[in-house]
Every structure is written in structure tokens, then in C-alpha cells.
Design a protein that fits this description.
Layout: H1 3-15, H2 18-55, E1 60-65, E2 69-70, E3 77-78, H3 85-92, E4 100-115, E5 118-127, H4 131-134, E6 139-142, H5 147-152, E7 156-159, H6 161-168, E8 177-180, E9 183-191, E10 205-209, H7 210-217, E11 231-236, H8 242-257, E12 265-269, H9 270-313, H10 315-323, H11 328-361, E13 365-366, E14 369-370, H12 377-403, H13 407-412
Parallel strand pairs: 5-10, 7-9
Antiparallel strand pairs: 1-11, 1-12, 2-3, 4-5, 4-8, 4-11, 6-9, 7-10, 8-9, 13-14
Length: 414
């Protein structure tokens, strides 16, 4: 028989038990749809992270205190408070490092925020006026921290969009007074929302002058009295000057810290961070696909189960076909084709369901999380290949069992 005859014979046999075949196909449909939708969500998250990091610019260096670091680039902190605000000012000096265009030091702490009857606990970030441009942020309303605020240790604050909504609802907070750790601060601005996803935490924060954060809010002090920082973001004039700027910054800090052996700081660049995150998110996407693949495995077990039942029910048919000259290969092909039709048919329907589900989820906010999906053809190819492989794998044993039937024993079967 040619392939068309084999497929037609398989469809005829399956159609004779429509409900049973449909329920078997349903397991494959659910598995394929889950693989496509979950991998689309994973790739959407990956694209969102990559886009957000690239939006900061590929010409950023991040200097952290300590020889080792943890917590990633955002709000990361080294193993010791070895960097100071004076270090940041020294790096920004064009006569010392001409390849640097802007420097934004940060000091992170936490605070209890109160306005009227509303209160929350969130991150308080001490920054300078350059932070807005270096981090590529925008204001929704009001103004930002000025150099005068930093010099005078002014008790002013810029709210993240989520923090603003938590404390003030839909009201304009600019000009209002809040309390941070029982200290009165005047709200001078509100940041634009960064949206959901991995960067949604940027909306739940409060920015204050870095000197105010150190002298009014932070609990740690250095014996020298210098303002310590957790991170210094350095914007380089040109991407081609990244290596040069990194070397110049390292040399400057070694001289300032009088180091002769191991550095007490770490310098990371944006590209290294991007590559690391891409590797991490690739693993995350594959992990989501593997979880969804479990349902495909369950669907494959369903195919094996239904094919074993089918072999038992059609024992006399097998005996008649063998008595009329059918070979083992013919019987094997017959039952294998039925298993493959079930898996590929379910895979095709599952692809359509997965695409529809991905489109439905795209841009939706569920449980406070904004989902973005990215669909690509390789996901479909992977899902179809796996579903076909599962049908082939789980259909082998029932088909072999049918092919090994002795015609006389099969004809005697009641």
C-alpha cells in the first residue's frame, strides 16, 4: 500500500471509535498547546528583559564595591562598603577619564513610608541628578532631584508610580508631605511606570538625594565620614571606548584606594550582563517547555493504552488479514500509522490552540502581572516533532504485539 492508502486505512479504523479516539487526541492537543503557549510566554519575558536592558544603552559600566558581587546589576551590592560618593565624582572628572560622559552613584536602603492613613515599606534609593538620564527614566509629573538638593541634604522625594498609587491613589502627590522612617519629606515628582514584568520593581521605590539617604536614613557609617555607595553607573561616551573606560576607572580606583593586590571593587559592563541574562532566560524558556512536555508524555501514554485496547479488540481481524496473506510488516505499519495519525492530528489541533492561547494572553494583565508573548515557527516545528515522536515511540509496542500474533491463535480468539 502507498502512504495515502495507509493513512486512509488508519483514519477509517480510528473513525470507528470516534469518542475514544477524540479523548486520546485531546491529551496530545493539551500537551502541544501548553508547550507553545508556555514557551511563547517565556520568550516574551526574555524579549522584555533584553529590550529593557538595551534601552539603558549598551555603553554602561557598573562599578560595585567588593571583589565579588551578587544580586545582579540592579540594586546590586558588593561584599563591603568600599566605594564612596567622592569616588563617583572622581570618575566623572573629564580630566581624569575623558571617555566618561555621566556618572550616577546609588545608595540603597529601606524605609517605612507613611501618608495620612496609608503606609507601605519599600526601597529608598539615594541618587544624584544624573540618575534620571543614565538610567533612561522619565518623569510623569513634577521635577527631579537637583544638585542643590544633594549639596544641602534636602528632604525631598521622587516616587515610583506604584508607590505613588499606593499612598495617594489617583491624586497628584507633588507638593505633599510624606514620612520616611519618621522624617518629613516633600514629594517633588513621580516617575513614569516601567510596567510589569521583571522591571516592575522599579515602580515600587522612592528616590531621595544620596546625601540625604546617607545622613538621614541609612544606618551604617564609615569611620572616615565619607558617603558610601552601593553602585556607580557609568555612561561611556561611545561603545567602542568601553574597554578603555573600564581600564581607566580601574586604574583610578586602585590609586584612590591605595591598592597593591586584589581590587576592592568590581566592574561589569552592560553587554556581559545582557549575555548572562540571555543564558539564564534561555534556560527558563526550556524549563517551561519541559514542564509542558510532561503533559505530552501523558498523552503518549494515552495513545499506548488505546492502541493496546485496539489490538485486543481486533485480534480476529489481525488473524483474518494474516490468513489472507498480510505480513508482519503490513500489520506493524497498520497500527503504527494509527498511532502516528492520532499524535500528528492532535499536534496540529494543539498548534492552533496554542497559537490562539498565546494571542489571547499577549498584553493581558493576570494577577497583577503583564504578560507578553513572542511566537515563532521553531516552537511549532518542535511541538509537532515531539508529538510525532511520542506517537511513534508509544505506538511501537502495541504495533509489534499485533504483528507477532499467530494467525491461527488470532482466529480462535473470542
Amino acid at each position: 500500500m502507498n502512504l495515502l492508502d495507509i493513512a486512509n486505512s488508519a483514519l477509517t479504523s480510528l473513525w470507528a471509535n470516534k469518542l475514544r479516539s477524540s479523548l486520546t487526541v485531546l491529551g496530545i492537543v493539551i500537551g502541544v498547546a501548553a508547550v507553545i503557549s508556555l514557551m511563547s510566554i517565556g520568550r516574551g519575558a526574555q524579549a522584555s528583559i533584553t529590550e529593557r536592558i538595551q534601552s539603558l544603552g549598551t555603553n554602561l559600566l557598573f562599578v560595585q564595591p567588593g571583589a565579588t558581587s551578587f544580586g545582579g546589576i540592579f540594586f546590586g551590592q558588593g561584599s563591603a562598603s568600599t566605594l564612596t560618593l567622592d569616588d563617583a565624582y572622581a570618575i566623572s572628572d573629564p580630566t581624569a577619564i575623558p571617555s566618561v560622559s555621566a556618572v550616577a552613584p546609588e545608595l540603597s536602603t529601606f524605609g517605612d513610608i507613611v501618608f495620612g492613613r496609608e503606609n507601605t515599606s519599600t526601597q529608598v534609593l539615594g541618587v544624584t541628578t544624573e540618575y534620571l538620564d543614565v538610567r533612561n527614566l522619565e518623569l510623569s509629573t513634577g521635577g527631579f532631584i537637583s544638585q542643590g538638593h544633594v549639596t544641602n541634604r534636602s528632604e525631598v522625594a521622587v516616587l515610583g508610580s506604584f508607590t505613588s498609587e499606593t499612598l495617594f491613589g489617583l491624586r497628584d502627590p507633588v507638593g505633599q508631605t510624606i514620612r520616611i522612617n519618621d522624617r518629613r519629606f516633600t514629594v517633588i515628582g513621580v516617575l513614569d511606570s516601567e510596567g510589569g514584568g521583571p522591571f516592575g520593581q522599579l515602580d515600587d521605590q522612592i528616590l531621595v538625594p544620596i546625601t540625604t539617604a546617607y545622613y538621614r536614613l541609612a544606618s551604617e557609617r564609615t569611620t572616615q565620614g565619607d558617603v558610601t555607595v552601593n553602585l556607580i553607573s557609568v555612561q561611556v561616551e561611545d561603545e567602542d571606548l568601553m574597554d578603555q573606560a573600564e581600564g581607566e576607572i580601574a586604574t583610578l580606583l586602585r590609586l584612590r584606594h591605595r591598592l597593591t593586590s586584589e581590587d576592592d571593587f568590581t566592574i561589569n559592563n552592560q553587554q556581559d550582563t545582557l549575555e548572562t541574562l540571555e543564558e539564564t532566560t534561555d534556560t527558563f524558556v526550556m524549563f517551561l517547555g519541559a514542564i509542558a512536555g510532561i503533559s505530552l508524555l501523558v498523552g503518549g501514554i494515552g495513545i499506548m493504552n488505546i492502541m493496546l485496547v485496539s489490538v485486543t479488540e481486533r485480534t480476529r481481524e489481525i488473524g483474518i488479514r494474516k490468513a489472507m496473506g498480510a505480513t508482519r510488516r503490513d500489520i506493524l505499519v497498520q497500527f503504527m500509522s494509527e498511532a502516528i495519525v492520532l499524535s500528528i492530528g492532535g499536534g496540529g489541533i494543539g498548534v492552533l490552540a496554542g497559537i490562539a492561547l498565546s494571542r489571547l494572553i499577549d498584553g493581558r494583565t493576570l494577577l497583577g502581572q503583564n504578560f507578553e508573548t513572542v511566537f515563532s515557527g521553531d516552537i511549532v516545528v518542535l511541538a509537532l516533532f515531539v508529538s510525532a515522536a511520542i506517537g511513534l515511540f508509544f505506538g511501537i509496542y502495541p504495533a509489534v504485539r499485533a504483528a507477532r500474533q499467530h494467525p491461527i491463535d488470532a482466529l480462535r480468539y473470542e
